[in-house]
Hints:
Layout (H helix, E strand, L loop, with lengths): L2 H15 L8 E6 L4 E7 L4 E7 L16 H18 L6 E3 L8 H11 L5
Helix pairs in contact: 2-3
Amino acid sequence: MNKKDRRTTRHMKVRKRVFGTKDKPRLSVFRSNKNIYAQLIDDHQASTLVGISTVKMKDMKDNDPQKSKKFDQAKKVGDEIAKIAIKKKIKKVVFDRGGFKYHGRIKALAEAAKKGGLNF
């Protein structure tokens, strides 16, 4: 079993327990080597309510490594998803770490979202 298979197994274990509704959507996080993605998902209707990533954010499109580190980018994505969710009157979410360990960029995004006003 390689790394990708182990992460997929962990993600399936998490997804058995975590379910998003319209009132309390699922905050799903995916981390790649270069970018980080976050979505608010309503699992009842199988629709994405809000989605943001470092790819979509204009101030991070410059790939200059001196401008912002990956950790800081994760914090910015967490802040931004919280702002957008608050505008759509979503305050409570269920956190789905996507099979990743809760440390590093995943933890930074989650704490920034909590600081931005989301409860989970």
